[in-house]
Design goal:
Layout: H1 3-39, H2 46-59, H3 61-82, H4 85-91, H5 96-138, E1 157-165, E2 171-179, E3 188-199, E4 205-218, H6 224-227, E5 232-245, H7 267-295, E6 302-303, E7 317-318, H8 335-398, H9 405-429, H10 435-458, H11 466-489
Antiparallel strand pairs: 1-2, 2-3, 3-4, 4-5, 6-7
């Protein structure tokens, strides 16, 4: 490797790794802020949370890598231009393409690595992260009974503790326990002056010992006339123990119960899934056609009364002539009943057809989601190359390094790319555009811009000089101004 190539690669890789890690961390923090309420206070072991964050950090790589490529490209070539190193390379006879050559090779390798990562790692990461997130969010909050506050974490009960004392805060006073297990409201309440709370050794049960308490329970008689008397049962006790089941608070296996979706499949699995979906769709369509055809077939056959039935000659069957007016073939007494039945059947068939159309649309969208994911694995990888050809010449043009101007420009460009790609992807989801067009249009729009910026930077054209863009308009305005001046100078002809 030549010294120049080594120098350019070293200058690029350092900011690339830094910006990539920063972008992954930033996108990971967005995930944490979004699901912070679902992750905190549920008594889940810390390693499950760490594992979830690890898999989530892998799922944000397709968004972090293109942004890191764009930002590091602008920073690297902006720094080279700011320190006049780019000018020195050009003065020695090296073109911009020659300077970019090692980075182009590096970008091709990065794009290939991005595809392999998206094809083999991200499907597994999506499967693991979504499974963990679903199991954690569905888990009940950790057992935390605070004094003076109603605790409803245990299903079927509402517990209020007036005061907690003792070395382990397990000595209780002014205890109220509302029993909702009968699903009929506050039908039973237990009150006690003092007690003790203790969790069993296997952490499966919570035992609350109650001292000197009372129990009140409203009765619901089966006879309506007895309900107006509002009967209830009151009892007192010196000591009682209530056991609560804490099995819902156990973590269990947070990795179980996974279901694969389209974003959890690689390219080969997506192809197999699309083939299966098409086959199922075709079978459903044939089944619908057969059912609708069978409902609207009309055929009348009757026996020929004049035919002679014998062993030598089979029975003759003739089809009766059907009159053009269908109702004329039916007995007048039964016509009204036939009309009503026909309307009922028609409405039923219309509803069946509407449901089938909605099902067809849903099946088409499911297939489109799989095809969009298939195209996305390639388009996101190609976007790294596209954004590099935008960032590298743009950095050479603005000649500003560091984290100031390059960050602003790269963020604006990436926002445009992300908004356009997401909007086009949404058109693909709604079946307005084909999956290929939806996933590749953003790249096809930005790639010519990158080629144009590379050409302008290689030829040292003044892109940000407004006067260069106003010259054609100035020439046109000067032509009209000269004609106007000439018309004013020439005297009008005498009549």
């Amino acid at each position: 490797m030549k010294t120049l190539d080594r120098f350019v690669l070293t200058s690029y890789i350092r900011p690339f790794l830094t910006t990539f890690l920063v972008m992954v961390l930033f996108l990971l923090m967005q995930f944490v802020w979004k699901y912070i309420d679902d992750l905190v206070g549920r008594g889940v072991e810390w390693y499950y949370i760490a594992e979830l964050l690890f898999y989530t950090s892998a799922t944000v790589v397709p968004m972090a890598l293109p942004l890191a490529v764009l930002l590091s490209s602008i920073m690297t070539f902006g720094t080279l231009g700011e320190h006049n190193e780019m000018a020195a390379m050009k003065s020695s006879g090296l073109s911009l393409i020659r300077v970019m050559r090692p980075l182009i090779i590096f970008m091709l390798m990065a794009a290939a690595g991005q595809f392999l990562f998206a094809n083999y790692v991200i499907p597994v990461a999506n499967l693991k992260s979504q499974t963990l997130l679903r199991n954690i969010t569905n888990k009940k909050p950790a057992l935390n009974i605070r004094q003076g506050v109603f605790y409803t974490g245990i299903e079927g009960y509402s517990i209020k503790i007036g005061e907690k004392t003792g070395p382990d805060n397990n000595q209780l006073r002014n205890i109220f326990i509302y029993d909702h297990t009968k699903k009929m409201g506050n039908m039973k309440v237990i009150a006690s002056e003092a007690g003790e709370m203790k969790i069993t050794d296997n952490e499966m049960y919570l035992n609350i010992r109650l001292d000197e308490g009372h129990s009140y329970e409203d009765l619901n008689p089966s006879k309506l006339k007895d309900r107006d008397n509002y009967p209830f049962v009151k009892s007192s006790f010196d000591r009682a123990t209530i056991r609560f089941n804490l099995s819902d608070f156990q973590s269990g296996d947070m990795r179980a119960g996974a279901r694969k979706d389209y974003d959890m499949l690689n390219v080969r699995q997506l192809d197999d899934a699309v083939d299966s979906l098409h086959q199922s769709f075709d079978e459903r369509r044939v089944e619908f056609e057969e059912q609708m055809t069978g409902k609207y077939s009309f055929q009348t056959a009757m026996m020929n009364a004049d035919s002679v039935v014998s062993e030598e000659e089979p029975q003759k069957v003739t089809t009766a002539a059907i009159k053009p007016d269908i109702l004329a073939n039916i007995d007048p007494v039964d016509r009204q009943k036939v009309i009503q039945n026909s309307l009922r059947i028609a409405r039923s068939n219309k509803a069946y057809y509407t449901n089938a159309a909605a099902e067809y649309l849903w099946r088409d969208k499911v297939i489109a989601r799989h095809l969009l994911e298939w195209q996305k694995k390639f388009s996101v990888s190609f976007s790294c190359i596209v954004l590099f050809f935008i960032g590298a010449p743009l950095g050479a043009i603005i000649r500003k390094g560091g984290m100031g101007m390059p960050v602003v420009i790269s963020v604006l460009i990436f926002i445009v790319y992300h908004v356009t790609s997401y909007s086009f992807e949404k058109l693909g989801r709604e079946l307005v555009w084909s999956p290929f067009r939806a996933m590749w249009t953003a790249n096809f729009i930005l790639f010519p811009i990158g080629v144009w910026l590379t050409y302008k930077s290689a030829t040292d054209s003044a892109i940000f000089n407004i006067e260069s863009y106003l010259k054609p308009f100035q020439k046109i305005s000067s032509i009209f101004a000269g004609r106007k001046k000439k018309s004013l100078e020439d005297p009008p002809a005498e009549q």
